[in-house]
Amino acid sequence: MEALFTHWLTQNLLVLAGFSLIAWMLWSASHHERWRRAWLRFRSDRGGIIALVVVGIYLILGALEVLSFPTKGGGTRTVLDLFVGGVPAEKSYSAPLATRLLSEAKPDPVKATHLLGTDALGKDVFVETLKACKTALIIGGLTAAIYIPLGTLFGILAGYFRRRVDDLIQYVYTTLASIPTILLLVAIILVLGKGLGTMSFALGLTAWVGLCRLIRGETLRQAERPYITAARALGQSHWNIITRHILPNVLHLVVINFVLGFSGIVLAESVLSYLGVGTPVGTPSWGNMIDSGRSELSRDPMVWWNLVSATVALFGLVLSLNLVGDSLRRAFDPKRG
Amino acid sequence: MPETPLLEIRDLSINFATENGTVEAVKGISFTVSKGETLAVVGESGSGKSVTGLALTRLLPEPPTIYKSGEIILEGRSVLKMSPRELRNIRGNKIAYIFQEPSTSLNPVFTIRNQIAEAIKLHRPEVRDIDAEVIKYLDLVGIIDPAKRLHDYPHQLSGGMQQRVMIAMALSCQPDLLVADEPTTALDVTIQAQIMDQLRDLKKQVNMSIILITHNFGIISGIADRVAVMFRGKIVEYGDTRTVLSNPQHPYTKALIQCIPQPGQKRERLATIDHAALEATI
Amino acid sequence: MLSYVLRRLLYAVPIVLGVIAITFLLFNVLQTPQAAATLVLGPKASQQARAEWIKNRGLDKPKSEQFVKHVKNMATFNFGTSWKSGRELNEVFRTGVGPSLMITIPGFLAGLIGGVGLALYQVFVRNSLLDRSITLWAVALMSVPTVVYIIFLQAIGALMLNYFPASGFDWRGLETLKFVALPIIIMAVVNLGSDVRLYRTIFMEEITQDYVRTALAKGLSSGHVLGVHVFKNGLIALITLTVGSLPALITGSLLIENFFGIPGLGNVLVLAIGTGDQPVVMASVYLGSLLYIASLILTDICYALADPRIRLS
User: Fold this and answer.
1) What are the residues facing C121 on neighbouring strands?
2) Taking the model in full, what pTM does it have?
3) What is the nearest CA distance from A140 to chain B, expressed in angstroms?
4) How many CA atoms lie within 13 A of A282 on its CB side?
5) How far apart are CA A117 and CA A93, in angstroms?
């Protein structure tokens, strides 16, 4: 099963599917008045547009790293490798644009110019940083795939049906929320083993609570409205009311929460890496780079490029996501700008 | 020799810069209000009547509002040229407001005593016993047992009482002009009549000028001396109330008056207004 | 009001039970008694020593019996001793509260006062370049991982400039400040970014309300309207939110304490997780959930008290 999933053809198809999904969502949104109006407002927010473009760049970088093709030797190379691969690895550390390795004993000359230096294993830091986009996007995407359906579903159920259903759902999420998140994350990952999949599962399990509360609140508000009572009076089934009336009216909150939540997830990865339950050591990830950066800073001479590069990359993505989220919020509700 | 009017509007034009382009809300209107006179400004939503009312003390937020041209002259001074401090001076003091939704126009976290007292302290610092003054004005607007009501919060009062409190608050500053922006629209019909009666009484007692902004021709008789009818930002008819009501000149005025349902009338359908046709007449 | 509080407390009971159950389950899946014994006694301990250790702690009894005993202990706040250090947990918690609060309270206050001040100012100059710049800066502040703040400030403040000790903690009167200065700065910075955004949203919500127009029509200055009218209305939402986060202050920031070696409650938990010290983790989580529920109830009460519309209905 694992082999099928990591096969290059599957990965390529997944990327294709992902982008098609995005395209389809944008297409169907353009048919709804509310989304069209919000887009017009969003468009005039220059900051938001720039941030969106930046997020898009990260998305493309990540996709390029997933898209791969078989090479003559029998292995696979990713499309990103085509652009920046082929930079030979050194033995160990070297500073950005340095001509020699960092070691004190035998500062050998470097095999190629490394824009941002090399890390402990001699890998080019710039290339590693770019490759780590994929990890961040995968974690964010998988986690979202888990927490968004969960949070939206239970939020709507709780807000619409109220009484017992609401009590039960509130009980579940209050109990979950009472347990310190870090403990829950660490526990789940230790039980299920380290890996991107389990990380996303654990993060998803803790993230759905926030979205659930938000959607529950909005559903409660919507369900009070006379048009819902009118629909019931006309004999509409619960399912129809939920899918046709409530869901479209809370969807924008889901989108905003997704964008802002994504940034939180990317940040959480760095915390998990610090605690030792982050991405496995072989996978390039900003969290791991920051974690190794911790001890590297106390070396003499100080190795800072690993930490700085990962931080800047992470910061760029998180900041852009936050700005896009803010712009979206303003676009859907200009008064609360 | 005719007295200088209290308020004179000359050829006033107001625009709004919105994300969809410039909106011309008021297009070159002119009218005057003399001391003790009541002017009714009648028109539908979007006619520019509320904008006109708020413009008198520049209460409209300044982007996006643009005062394109014209003059607002209050007692000989131009409002459009006033500094922020001068504007704050005339607000409440010379020109006071009551608004359409009394439930949201009053601050929910302060008692009614505090809200009225705030106005008194600001414009009439010489008043010693503020509580007595507040009670006096609450009584003036017809609130029963005002002493007991002093420490109530707005949500504890009915809609009609809230509006009376707003009127009391406006009057407590002893303004020369009261701008009433749709004061009864949000209230029940029976309460509407009560509030209008109250305003009529006050007019006699206090000799204050009033600008009554409304879409309802029905409430202006008995209180308005003159009436200005607004349509799409312009004044299409302006004159003495009795004359305008009995002998309207402009087709829009005629159409508006026809909309008022008359008791005893035998009609199958209520009259409506053909805006498209009337656009051509302005 | 009283019946309302009692009802909420009653609802809390199944939640706390749920929390205890989940943590109990997690640990019983994570660690077999054998593994726990090995962790505590060391890999060289004999089979017999391990068996004795397990027996002493009643870990060989059936799970259901253990669970009941466990619940009883939690309910009576009988936390026992740490597996690793052998210290009484009650004492551990008591000594841990001080350092945690020393860091979280100043950080919290900085976020609150700075946040409210900046947010009100932003509303005063709303939609101007200044307003947007402050928002951008606040968002940027929030977008840096806490870990990075910690690493950088520690590197600069302690290692390079040598003003502050890199880690550690000791009660030395005024000198104690040296140890907590960096953690407090980090806490404040991390809070400030998100607080400014939050409070701005709250106050912006108020500025569009009708009563603001009435206040301006009365002749009050923008400053007065903002500082008195808008502020007092915004205070309702503000109080609700800040009171809700008070109980969490006690538990302290896990990351910051761990990194700087501050012996606060947060560090206690992190170290306990790392060493598999079950009693400590169980007790910490239990207390944490109590505090969380307390914050929820406090929030509701404050909301009811602060808003006259609710208080007097």
Assistant:
1) none
2) 0.83
3) 35
4) 3
5) 7
